[in-house]
Amino acid sequence: MRLTLLAVLWTAASAFGVHSPKERRAAFGMLSATVNKKDVVTTENLALLSPRGRDAVERLIAFDLEGHQAHVYKNWPAAGEDDHGKQQLAEQLADLDASYPGGLSAYLSKAKKLLQESADGVNPFDEYEAVVPEGEVLKFGEESFRQAEQIGLAASKDVVFCLVAGGLGERLGYSGTKLSLETNLCDNASYLEFYCQYILALQHRARQSDSSVKIPLVIMTSGDTDAATRQLLLEQKYFGMDPQQVSIVTQDKVPALKDGFAGLAMDDRWTVQTKPHGHGDVHHLLYREGLVDQWEKEGKTHVIFLQDTNALVVNSVLPTLGVSIQKEFHMNSICIPRLAGEAAGAIARLEHKTDPDKSLVINVEYNQLDPLLRTQGDGDVADPNTGYSPFPGNANNLVIEMKSYARTLRGEDQGVVLEFVNPKYKDATRTEFKKPTRLECMMQDIPKLFQKEMKQEANIGFTMFDRWYTFSPAKNALEAGQEAVNAGSSAPGTMSSAESDMYIQNQHKLQSVGVDLPVTSDDDLIKAGGIPVTPGPRIILSPAFALISDDLKTVEGPMKVTRRSSLVLSGHNVKIQQLELDGALVVKVGPNTHLTIDGLSITNKGWELQELDPSKDYPETVRIRGYTMAKHETAEYVIDEPGHFVLDASGVIRKAE
Ligand code: UTP
Q1: Which of 23, 231, 582, 625 qualifies as a FRET site for 532, CA 20 to 30 Å off?
Q2: Ligand 1 centre and the CA of 308: distance in Å?
Q3: Of the candidates 192, 203, 225, 216, the residue with the CA atom closest to the CA atom of residue 292
Q4: By C-alpha distance, which of 631, 625, 624, 656 is closest to 641?
Q5: Does the Cβ of 165 fall within 6 Å of ligand 1?
Q6: Are residues 529 and 443 in the same domain?
Q7: What is the CATH number of the domain that holds 465?
Q8: Are residue 420 and residue 522 in the same domain, yes or no?
Q9: CB-side exposure of 219: number of CA atoms within 13 Å?
Q10: Domain check: are 420 and 524 in the same one?
Q11: Pfam families, from UniProt (predicted)?
Q12: What is the pLDDT of residue 125?
C-alpha cells in the first residue's frame, strides 16, 4: 500500500518534469502535504491512551504537516482491536519525546534538514581552510614527557574520569559488555577492573598529601550495556572503589529513520525502531544529571574521557593533563601519528575564510579531510620529512578543563553536540536507504559548542604520543582482524593484538630502566589465532607498580627476563634489587606492603599460548581472542600484610630487618 502510494507520487513527480533529487523531494513534499488529516487517530482510540501517550501522539500529528509520519498514526484499527499495541506505541513516542532535548519534533526537524543536506552533497567545510593546530608531541623517556607527567600527577587529585561505554561493539561481535572482557591472560584483569585499578592508584598517590581525595568515575552506559555493567560492578564489589565514587549515566537510543524525509522506521506496526545515538550524548547527560555543576563546585579541574577497550590510554592521561595545564588548553585530544589516507580522524584547525569567530580546532573525519585538503593543495598526503600526515591522528580520549566545560554546557545547546547523518543510499538519486539510518553524535565534536560559547577564547589542542605507548583498542572480531592482517594491516584491533601490545609496551618500559629482556620487533611477532602477537616475554605492570615513568626507577639493580617468560608485578611499593626470570612469576602486594626483591632467581615451566582446537567448542570470550593460556607452573608471591619485606635468593618472603 505504502509502496503503491510512493510509486504514484514518484510517477507524478516525474510527470511534472522534476528530475534532480532536490526537485523530486520538493515535489514529494508538496504532494504528501495533502495527506488527509481526517484519518488521524479517532477519539475512541485516543481515549485508550494515557495522558502522556495521548499528548505524544497528538504532538506528532500536529508536527507532521507534510504527512511523512502518517504511517505511524494513520489507519489505526477501531478501538477494541490491538489496543495494547496502540498504548505501547503511544508510550514509546512519549518516551522518545521526553528523552531528546526539544522532543521528538526537534529530532525529526533536525533529521530532515541534515538528510536534505546529505542528499544534496553539501560540504560542511566549504568556508574553511585546514591548518595543523597547536599541540605537543611527547615521547616516553624524554625530559618534556617527564615534566608533563609530573605536572599531571600533581593535578590529578582534582580530576574526574568518564568512561563512555554505551557502544554495542558490533564489530567485536561479543554479546556481553566489552568492559567485562579480559585485557590480558596473565593477570586476567577486565577492562573495567584495569581502569578502576588506575584510578585507585592515582588516588592512593594523591592521598599521600591529602587523605580526603576521592577521584570520581562516571560510566556512560546505554540500554545495550547498562544492566551488564551494573552487574559487573556489583559482582566485583566495584573493583575496590567506593560505590559512592562511581556513577552511571545512561544514554537513550534515538528513532531510526527510513527515508530522506525523516519518516520514522518501524520494527513492527506498534514499535518505532531505535538505534544508538553515539558517544556524543555524554556531554548533555553529564550536564542534565547535574554532575558538571557539582564537580565545578567541588573544585574539580578536569574531566578525562576514556573509551571502553583501550587499556594503553592510561599511559598518556597524566602527560596530557600536564600539557593541558601548561598550555591552558580547554580541551586536549590524545593523538597518535597518522598515516596519510589512514581511515582515522585527524585534529585540524579550521580557519573560517571570513569570520575568525567561527574558526575552531576539531576532529575532521578521514573521508572529509582529503576533499577539504584538496581545495587547498595536494589532499591528505604525508609530510616528506616524517612520512606521516602533518595532522595528528585522533585516538579520541579527551581531557577537558572543567570551568570552560561547565560554561559551554550552560549555553543554549546544553551540551547537545551537533549531530550528523550517514545514510547508505540505495542508488544515485540519494532518496532511499539500504537500511534505516539515524542522527548520530560524537563526543569529539564538543569544540563546536566551545566555539559557540567562547568564540576565539576557546583554546583547543592535542598531545601526541607514539602509537605503541597509548593506542591499541580491541574493536574487531577475530575474523575481521585476520582479514585485515591478510590485507597487510599491522593494527588488526583484536582482543589478541590489544593484549600483545600491552605486553610489548611493558617490555619497552622495563627496557628503559636497563632490564635485560628482548623487546619484540615486527619481525619477531608470531601468529596466534591468525593474528601476529609477541612471543614474549609477557609482562604486566599494574598501574600501582608503575603509575608514572619515574616509578620504573624502583628497578634498581640487575634484572633479566627471558623471552619465554611471563611476569606480573603489582603493588605500590615493590622494589627490585636483583631478579632473574625464566618462566612465570607473579608478585602482588597490598597498598601498605613494601617488598624488595633481592637476588630472586626463578626457573620453571612457565606459561604458554595454546591455539584453539577447531574440533572443540569454546566460550565466546575465548573464541574472540583466538587462544588460551596454559599456566604450567608459576612462582607466586602474594602478600597483603602492611610492613617491610624481602624476597631473596631463598625464594621465601621474610620481614626486613
Ligand atoms: P566504538 O567506535 O568502539 O563503537 O565506540 P561501538 O558502538 O562500541 O562498537 P561498534 O561500532 O558497534 O563495533 C567508541 C566508544 O564509544 C562508546 C563505546 O562504548 C566506546 O567506548 N559508545 C559508542 C558509546 O558510549 N555510545 C554509543 O552510542 C556508541
Answers
A1: 582
A2: 8
A3: 216
A4: 656
A5: yes
A6: no
A7: 3.90.550.10
A8: no
A9: 29
A10: no
A11: UDPGP
A12: 87
Whether residue 248 has its Cβ less than 6 Å from ligand 1? no
**222 and 92 belong to one structural domain:** no
Instruction: Pick the atom of ligand 1 nearest to 165's CA.
Output: 19
- Cβ of 170 below 6 Å from ligand 1: yes
At residue 25, the pLDDT reads: 42
Distance 169 CA to ligand 1 centre (A): 6
Ligand 1 binding pocket includes 166 (Cβ within 6 Å) = yes
Question: Do 304 and 182 share a domain, yes or no?
Answer: yes
What is the total residue count of the chain?
657
The pTM assigned to this predicted structure is 0.91
Distance CA 163, CA 195 (A): 9
Q: Ligand 1 centre from 166 Cα, in Å?
A: 6
Residue 600 is part of a domain; what is its CATH number? 2.160.10.30
* Pocket probe mutation, ligand 1, options 163, 164, 417, max atoms within 8 Å of Cβ: 164
Q: Is the CB of 285 under 6 A from ligand 1?
A: no
Nearest to residue 514, comparing CAs of 576, 439, 607?
576
Residues of the chain with pLDDT under 70: 1-39
pLDDT value for 39: 60
Question: In this structure, are 147 and 91 located in the same domain?
Answer: no
Residue where a domain stops, chosen among 83, 99, 115: 99
Question: What is the total count of domains within the chain?
Answer: 3
Q: Could you tell me if the CB of 395 is within 6 A of ligand 1? A: no
- Atom of ligand 1 at shortest distance to CA of 225? 19
User: Considering the domain boundaries, does residue 338 fall inside one?
Assistant: yes
Q: Is 493 in the pocket of ligand 1 (CB under 6 A)?
A: no
453 exposure class (CB count in 10 Å sphere: 0-12, 13-18, 19+): middle
In terms of domains, do 169 and 300 share one?
Answer: yes
Same domain for 204 and 73: no
Question: Does any ligand 1 atom lie closer than 6 A to the CB of residue 345?
Answer: no
Residue with cell 539500504: 434
Tell me the CA–centroid distance for residue 278 and ligand 1, in Å: 7
Residue nearest to atom 1 of ligand 1 (CA): 167
Q: pLDDT tens digits, residue range 413-467? A: 999 999 999 898 888 888 789 999 999 999 999 999 999 999 999 999 999 999 9
How close is the Cα of 150 to the center of ligand 1, in Å? 31
Distance between CA atoms of residues 421 and 111, nearest Å: 8
